[in-house]
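Chapter summary example.
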Amino acid sequence: MITKGHRENLSGTNLLVIGGTLILVALAALTVFFPVPLTAFLIVATLCLFIVAAYSLWQRNQETTFRHRLHTLLNHTNEAIQITDREGDTLVLNPVFKEWSGYDESDLAGMSPFAFVESDRPLWQSAVERLSKGEELETDLRVRRKDGSRVLARLHFTPILNAMGKFVECIVSYSDVSERWELSRKLEESQEKYCNIVESTLDGLVVVQDGRLVFVNQSAVKIFGYDSAEEMQTVNFTQTVAPASRPFVKEVELQKSTLGDIFSNYEMKGLTKQGKIIDLESNARLVSWNGGPAVLASFRDVTDRKMLEHEQALWLWEQETLCSIDRKLASIVDLQQILATVAKNAKALTRADFAAIVMVERTRSSLVWWTVRGNREAVQEEPIKMSREELERLTKKGPVVLDKHHREGFESYREAFDREGIVSAALFPLQVEGELRGHLLVGFRSEHELTGRNMRLLLSLAEKSSIAVANTELYDNLVQRERELKLLSGARVEAQEEERRRIAREIHDSLGQLLTAIKFNIEVLEDSVSSGSARQERLQDVKRLLDTAMAEAREISYNLMPSVLEDFGLVPALQLLCEQFEKRNGLRLTFHAHGVHERLDPIMEVGLYRIVQEALTNIAKHAQATEASVQFVRDTQGIRLTVEDSGKGFETVQPRLVERRGMGLVSMRERAASFKGSFTIDSTPGSGTVVVVEIPIPNGLAK
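The structure predicted for these 703 residues follows.
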């Protein structure tokens, strides 16, 4: 494989041989003019010919070696190589070029130089200018292969110069850089995406190395209040951390050793350029930066979120406090305890130094410090007199905000304010049905302005205090009414019993004597009538009717007020009542008494007797029972009276249902309640009924 340049070298060798021959001819001609020994001439001529022949042989060996090396290089290199002449026509293509491009020498013979390379202008014309100067050229262009595909290749042009330094040939090597270019393009895209992400993220990103900020993104600049990334990078990292969080940061720097997470989702305090402390949620990793360890940290400004969380927690606490007060309003009737709770929570909710409930007594034109929280000295317990003008002023006004310069018209509070060092205060009226009953007062020992939220909370607490005052008054009225009702009920029962005694005495004394006199007169008439006559039989019928009437009168008199109850006590009276009930109604009735060794109060004995009497009457009317029992037990706890039957029973009786079933049950309940006892009925359909009366009896109730 001999290129054009090689041929020019071979021509130079032939010229050398011809030149040597001419030298020998010139030497022979000289011998004609200058006689020289033939032997010397032959020696010199032989020597010249030998030198020329040796040089020619050496030159041929060099060329052979060069050709062998060139052939080996072209056939074994990994690069595609093309050798052209100075006009750009292809001389040699190595196998790699043929395989890579699909072209051979015959394919390129009819083409313009480098027609398969896509370029803005003819490639060879732009390259030959530099190659002629002996300069190399390298460029990246797209190559169209024989199959039509296009690849990006790096073309390296190397000029070949002859012995005269003239450009004769060119070696062009082709390197496929498509994959490298694609990787480079992807790397650039990745870097661009990374930069876009880093710069567009809302989280502040910083890289800290040796305590210095070596990288910050725009979000970090914005979070920490700097004007630019360059300005922020001039400060030490600790200058962006609030003093409270600096010990933690220093501890983290001491503990970092290997790449990885240092801390995650850690909440810390940051410090802006303007000196403002902000809440940050941070993450940190130990990374490699410029060949050295560094900390990559991300920061998210959660100041607004923390503020909202604080507001939410505060709102929940306030609502729970108000609900707690509502629960106490519903379950507690102690006004002192409720108002003390209100004052305590008013102080806590508003961060006040002083809180109090002051009640106004309009009848005496005075105010009383009812409950106080946060006081340094004891408050005045005696009522404080108010002028009528001040009372009217307090009545007409709504919430009043006071400071040390505006206290005119509130002289009753001035002494307490001065004593406690109150600078700012607010009064919220407690009103019931439009009438002023007092004030909820909060005070501060320094200048303080209540927020809208605090005003709403205190108004709500004042309303709840007003409700507590109204509920207490209603409860007191109800208790008084119940007390009066109990007194009236007891008086009514006592009047009933007294009326029963009067009627029993009148039946026994008047009606009984009258019936006895009638019977005596009839017996006198009977003696004057002949025996066996119709008149005598009629008189005997009248006598029998009178006996029945007298018996009924005695029984009515006994039922109205049993004499045995007054003479012998409750147990004998109940024993006799059970015996008479058993005979009269034809059922088995048992009576048991235990622990009764002394008589009870007469009023209680009558009440218990009436309860048993009413219970037995209900059994006779409704139970359809065959058996019944009465138990009367007294122990150290009190009295337990039980009336039980085996009748048909009824549905469980609720208190209001008891009232609808008749006055008998109501009467029994009232009698038990008049002795501070309990009255219960336990009944199941088909299983009978149990009436239980339990009365606690102090020792003083015994007769």
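To summarize the output: Residues 67 and 690 are 134 Å apart (CA to CA).
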